[in-house]
Task: structure prediction
Amino acid sequence: MSKKSRRQRTPNLPPEAFQVPVARPEQATEPTGEPAMPARHAPVNVDLRREYGDVLSDLKLTALIFLSLVAVMVALSFFVI
Result:
C-alpha cells in the first residue's frame, strides 16, 4: 500500500481559471431597480429530423452493428464450449 501524501491537492489549472467574475445581487438589477429576469427566447420552428439526420443515421447503424454482434455471439455459443 502506498504512503498517503499530507499535502493539499490542487487541480492542475492555470491561475486565470480561478479568476471568474461573480455576479453580485446589486449588479443583477434593471434600471428600474427590479431584479433582472433571464431573457426568454421565442420558440423557433426547427425541423429536428433535418438537423439531426446524421445523428439518427449513426444511431441506426450502431444499433444494426450491435444486433449483428449479439446474433454472432449467440450463434457461436452453440459451437464453442
Notes: The radius of gyration is 28 Å. Residues 69 and 80 are 16 Å apart (CA to CA). Residues 47-81 form one domain.
